[in-house]
Amino acid sequence: MKLLKIISLSLLFVFTVMACRVSYSFTGGTLSADVKTFSVQSFPNRASLVNPDLSNDFAEDLKEKFRSKTTLDEIVGGEGHLNFEGEITGYQTKAIDVTSDDISATNRLTITIKVRFTNEIEPDNDFDKSFSAYSDFDSTSQLSDVEDELVEEILEDIIDDIYNAAVVNW
């Protein structure tokens, strides 16, 4: 009788696990087990001020985020189960913290990227929205001297927001 209970509970556990078609990640996101591929299309730079490396850097960093934080490692050339496309719509600097002498103490670099995300498996999770982030730098520095570091920091923030919107559903 005891053996029958153990076998029954074991089978119940196995069937429960098999019925759960959701895979979990350590970052709090969930993906359907049916999601096997993802794709990142070209993100043309349509901002009025253009950083020539931004489009490629963004696409590669977004791919790396999904490779490292999910079980997805198959990137397809066409459209995957998860597909990201869009354009860079903003790349601008502006003065903030203006002193009484009308001199800026701090400048801000802001990047905005419009993303169209489609989820072939769960279309209710699709979105089409803009993500924006910024980083401040001292006005005594030239943008060209700090640009690479600022862009890296800003892209990390934007990509985290995109990941959370696509996978974590925040």
Low-confidence stretches: 14-28
CATH architecture: 2-Layer Sandwich
Oligomer: single chain
Rg calc: 22 Å
- The CA-CA distance between the termini, in Å, is 48 Å
Task: Describe what this molecule looks like in 3D.
This protein has 170 residues and is α/β, with parallel strands linked by helices. It has a single domain, classed as Lipoprotein like domain (Double Stranded RNA Binding Domain), CATH 3.30.160.150. The chain contains three helices and seven strands; from the N terminus they run αβββαββββα. It has a five-stranded mixed β-sheet, covered by helices on one side. A two-stranded antiparallel sheet has the order 1-2. Helix 2 packs across helix 3. The protein is elongated and about 90 Å long. About 9% of the residues have low confidence.
Give the key terms.
single chain; 170 residues; alpha/beta; Double Stranded RNA Binding Domain; five-stranded mixed beta sheet; two-stranded antiparallel sheet; 3 helices; elongated
